[in-house]
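Before a colleague's protein record goes any further, I have to sign it off. I want your independent view on whether this chain really folds as the tokens say. The record follows directly below this note.
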Amino acid sequence: MISTTAAATQHTLQTENLSVYYGNTLAVKNVFLDIPKNQITALIGPSGCGKSTVLRCFNRMNDLVPSARIEGNVLFHGTNLYDKRVDPVMVRRQIGMVFQKPNPFPKSIYENITFGAKINGYKGNLDELVERSLKRAALWDEVKDKLKASGLSLSGGQQQRLCIARTIAIDPEVILMDEPCSALDPISTLRVEELMNELKEQYTIVIVTHNMQQASRVSDKTAFFNAEATEKGGKVGFLVEYDETIRIFTDPREEKTRDYVSGRFG
């Protein structure tokens, strides 16, 4: 069970000197982040700089990689998510995730929404849950007359919103999004971005994106990651700068940030 402690702040999630290893290989090092409640935080940077690795630490998805281990702390309202007393299944109920490629279950639209709720022992009215979740994901009007149709029959953008609705249905507090628009066309991307701005009234959102324009459009805060070469020929990711999005894109403190957002490298 995850509980709120006296150490909790206005920040929903925090990392304290977080480093992540795969086996003996250091993937990302010494990350300090404070994720504010009911805002959108974007993680940007070139490929291989640790953005998705850090994102997966927030709901312990890295636990599914046998060689992965972390050092430092990841806090949710002041509780260390990696404390041995914390159930990772409970973590993933409260901190949901939407992946890069839409991945509806090969089930009906209705069953996609109710599947997780049933597993988690939901006792309420399932019809109301489906309608509420699809409305929050701005999909209800498009699918309300075909709830028995397969989720796989929807367009790519609709599938991604279905996945968001499926995440919302288990009533998380945080929604993690790992490049949620990279497989979508511009119109679908815009709809998902509009949806994110609507959802932040009720949820804390953390998004990984390679699209700097998207980060500047949708996020309140932005963390810029980069990577440096190691002696063994690999590279390790690290946090360069974290600030209000407008500051990152118009007046960053670090030269590396300025070079990246201006397109000089990356």
Observations:
- The CA atoms of residues 108 and 150 lie 4 Å apart.
